[in-house]
Amino acid sequence: MRLPTITILTPEELPITPGRSLDGPDKTIVSDIINAHGFVLFRGYDSASAEDFHAFIQCFDLPNFTYSESFSNAVRHNRTARVFTANEAPPEVEIFLHHEMAQTLSFPGQLFFFCEHAADSGGATPICRSDLALNILEANHPAFTAKLRKLGVRYRNSMPENADLASGQGRSWRHTLNVASIAEAERRLTSLGYEYRWLRDGGLSVQTPILPAIDDFGRGREVFFNQIVAAAAGWANAVDDDEPRLCFGDQTRIESADLKAAIAASYQCTVDLEWQKGDVALLDNLRVMHGRRPFRGSRSILASLCSPISRSAKVI
Ligand SMILES: [Fe+2]
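Above are the sequence and the fe (ii) ion SMILES. Below is the predicted complex in structure-token form.
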């Protein structure tokens, strides 16, 4: 079994000066590691605050992906124009492996994390090589992966009327959809091809259009780019919203044995990134999944999303 490799860069190997863009050879050092492993850890740089992290990110010249424009369902708070708190779910809640926003039509190509303050214990960020996980799933459950390729997948989630801080996906529908009224929400969802149903408590249950579940993004190597693991392992049904969180693109049921196999294959190809204060990680969102282990004490990991990518719904 091949596990992801954690490659660490230090200021001795790659000096990074806030306010100065990386030059071509320096960018190549970073991209060579990302191309080989899907992520890189920067350790020993002098970053202590959200502002330091922001300045560090700016050196990479990557376009910003704003949280307010995203369909992310996690509750977060901006600390600078391109830095926000990672998922605010309580410490005991595990955030299962996912590609950032793979359940939406628009997602970041890369993301940065920054450890402002490490937890007393736990709180690692598991990182999964999605291409390796797909290889395992393909070998053991070829009928499932063939069906995913053919039919794609649809996700259902409920958005509360007001932010629910006890949930890993508690962002309110007004904020998620960036709208002010019910009518505006309905127009936005319809234009994007979502189906929806209002819940009795004022929440909203939405189902995505059909999305690809396996993709190579033109790179010649397929990845398990979807939100199946997180949805199957962690998405809870809201009151009055009993339908499955996941189905194939033709609305048929995905067998629980196949979902369990996808979860197991993904965690088999995972390494835990144990944070030290000041660490910065850069992840290729099209190659690796990430999550969050439960923790004790206070933990502050900040995030920044880069390089927006949009795709169309899948037609079957
Ligand atoms: Fe995430």
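The chain has two domains: 8-131+274-310, 140-264.
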